[in-house]
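User: what does the whole thing look like in 3D?
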Amino acid sequence: MSLTGKVALVTGASRGIGAAVASALAAQGVAVAVNYFGSEAAARAIVQTIQSAGGRAMAVKADARDQAQVVAMAAAVKAELGPIDILVLNAAVGFPMAGFLDYPWEAFEAKLLGELGAAFHGCRAVVPQMLERKGGTIVAITSGLARNPGWGFCAHSAAKAGLEGFVRALACELGPLGIRVNAVAPGLTLTDATARLPEKHKDAAAAHAPLRRNGLAEDVAEAVLGLLQTGFVTGVTLPVNGGSYIF
Ligand SMILES: NC(=O)c1ccc[n+]([C@@H]2O[C@H](COP(=O)([O-])OP(=O)(O)OC[C@H]3O[C@@H](n4cnc5c(N)ncnc54)[C@H](OP(=O)(O)O)[C@@H]3O)[C@@H](O)[C@H]2O)c1
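Assistant: Here's the predicted 3D structure for the full assembly of 247 residues, as structure tokens:
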């Protein structure tokens, strides 16, 4: 299915996986709204690169966890690029790594509310625009840690598992309205978020994966594009992890 001429909003697209998704969409002729929170210069650089190549793009600031800011962002995108056909829920909601017995409730609560709030607010703001288009596609970036957890990740695993459930629920509700909803679950991917992991940890992850390397942001972007280009796939979670865990 051709994506040319569509309009996309990618949350958290100033860096990492979101930036790779924004660039990959633009290369397919999609007009892209590059959402950022703190990294304005990086977001503007991505927009500049897309525009220099002849594409359409805009940078738009919003805290993806804040309903009012997300509503304003969706309206700004519609005004500048047109109604949104594609929503990629990618913004990284931070969390401390700690064992469960030491995990502060406030941090756990903030991660759950932030992750699920960003998904809820994003979809509520954008789905009405998709209905104007008589269809659309949503892809949420979850995590392999939702199903294959490790020490220190209780909040992240719970939040991403909740996001997967939300994806399946919306797939059921919005399918009859012409909207597909899927998830991509990356394994360890080399971005700023994983830059401080010890090299030996990354090497061990690469050695464990059947494809024998760590993931790149571009690998995740390729999978997002693949799901967007299908026509009869909804409610699935696609792992992108070199086979390091298979579900
Ligand atoms: N890297 C991995 O190994 C991995 C594995 C599984 C899943 N994931 C998921 O993939 C997604 C992207 O992660 P990443 O590794 O690409 O992270 P990253 O390189 O740290 O980039 C994070 C992005 O999220 C944005 N962001 C953070 N808080 C935001 C907020 N409140 N509102 C809007 N944007 C916000 C940042 O924007 P600013 O810089 O402008 O603030 C930045 O563009 C996340 O959902 C993450 O959980 C990552």
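In plain terms: Residues 7-240 form a domain with the Rossmann fold fold (CATH 3.40.50.720). Residues 110 and 144 are 20 Å apart (CA to CA).
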